[in-house]
C-alpha cells in the first residue's frame, strides 16, 4: 500500500510555491531571505522523495491515475528547484505563479502583489534666508512654475484623502512631512515583515500537518495488514475444521450402523 498520493504532493508543491513567492518579496524589499531557505529545502526534499515513492509504486503495480500525474509533478519539482537555486527576485517559470489547488488562487495573488514604492526625494535647504525666499517665490508662482515641488507629492495612501496643500508649506515643513511619510513606510514594512513571518509559520504548520497525515496513514495501513493476516489465519482454521467434520461424519455413521447390527443380532438370537 502507498504512503503518499499525487494530491498530497500537489498540495506540498503549492506550499513550496507560496514560500518561494514570500522569499522573492523579501528579496525585492532588500530583506534577508535566508530565514526560509532551510524550510524550503526540506520541503523540496520531501517532494522529491514522494515522487520517487510514486515511481516505485508504478514500477511494482501499474496505476494509470498515478502515472498520468508523474510528468507534471516532475516538471514542478524541476522548476521549483531551479527557482530556489537561482535566488531570483522574480519568477523564472510560470509554474511558480499557478496554484495546483484553485482555492489557493487568492493567496497566490496576494503573495505576488508588489509592495508600493514611494519616492523619498525631498527638496529643502539649510539656509533659512534662502528657504524664506524660496517660499515667497512659491507663493507667487503656481505649481506649473515649479515641477520639482509638485513631484514631492506623487501619491496618497488613501485615494479619498484630500491632497496636501503644498503651497502653504515651507521647505522645512515639506521635509518634516516626508520624514513622517518615510516613518509610516517603515512601519508598513515592519507589518509586512510580521505578515511574512506569519505566512512562514502557516507554511511550517502545513508541512507538519502533512507529516502527521502520512504517519496516520501508515498506522492505518499497518492495522489493515495486521487484521487481514488474522482473517486469513482464522479462515484457514475454519476450512480445516470443516474438512475434519466431513471426514468424521462418515466414520460416525459407520460406527452407529455397526452398533445397530450387533443389537439386531443379539435380539434375534
UniProtKB/TrEMBL annotation:
Residues forming coiled coils: none
Keyword set includes Transmembrane: yes
Any GO molecular function: SNAP receptor activity
UniProt region (Disordered), positions on chain: 110-165
SUPFAM superfamilies membership: SNARE fusion complex
Compositional bias segments (type: Acidic residues): 137-146
GO biological process terms on file: Golgi to vacuole transport; intracellular protein transport; vesicle docking; vesicle fusion
Subcellular location: Endomembrane system
Start and end residues of each T-SNARE coiled-coil homology domain: 179-241
Keyword Disulfide bond recorded: no
Annotated keywords: Coiled coil, Membrane, Protein transport, Transmembrane, Transmembrane helix, Transport
Membrane-spanning intervals of the chain: 249-267
One Gene Ontology cellular component annotation held by this UniProt entry: endosome
Main location: membrane
Gene3D superfamilies, per database record: 1.20.5.110
The protein, known as: t-SNARE coiled-coil homology domain-containing protein
Source organism (scientific name): Lentithecium fluviatile CBS 122367
